[in-house]
Amino acid sequence: MPNTKQNLVGKVFGHLTVIAKSDERGTQHEYKWLCRCDCGRLTTVSTGQLNSGQTTSCGHIKARNLESGGQHHQSLLGDKPPVSNKTGYRNISMTKRNGRWRYRVSVQYNRKQHSTLADTLEEALAARERLREKWWPGYKNKDKL
Fold it and tell me: What is the spatial distance between Cα 50 and Cα 93, in angstroms, rounded to a whole number?
C-alpha cells in the first residue's frame, strides 16, 4: 500500500526539484507533484514515477539528443555485424524476392526503417553508405563520438 502521507516538496529527483503538490491526479488517482527542471521548465509527475526514478527530467535531455542526431543507438554506427548476421556486414542481409536472392540494406532512424535492395554485395555496400549518410546525422564524424 503506497504511503499517502509522503511530502516530496523540496526533494530532488535527478534534474527535477519538487515545488508543490499538484491538484491534478493521475489515471489511477495517484498524487502528482509540480516540479521544476534544471532547465527551468515546469512539469507534473506522479509520486510513483519520482520514487522509482522512471522520470528524472522534463524531457529536455531527450530533446537535446534529437537535436544532436541521437535517435539511433551509438553502437549502430560501428561496422561490426551482429552475431546473427550471415552476410558479414552490418545493416546488410539476404532476402529472397521474386525467386532470387538479393541483398537487403536497411538502417533505422527515429524508429523508422529505411531500406533498399541490391543485386551484388558491392552495390549493397555503396547503398549502405548512402543510407547512413542520409539518415544518420553526424555519421561521418562517428570516430569523434
Answer: 42
Best CA proximity match to 125, nearest among 97, 104, 98, 101: 104
What's the CA dihedral at 73, 74, 76, 80 to 10 degrees? -150
| pLDDT per residue as tens digits for the range 28-48 | 888 899 999 888 889 999 888
pTM: 0.44
Cell of 20: 508543490
Q: Residue 56: CB partners within 8 Å, gap ≥ 6?
A: 13, 14, 15, 16
pLDDT tens-digit readout, 75-120: 555 667 777 777 888 889 888 888 999 999 988 877 788 899 999 9
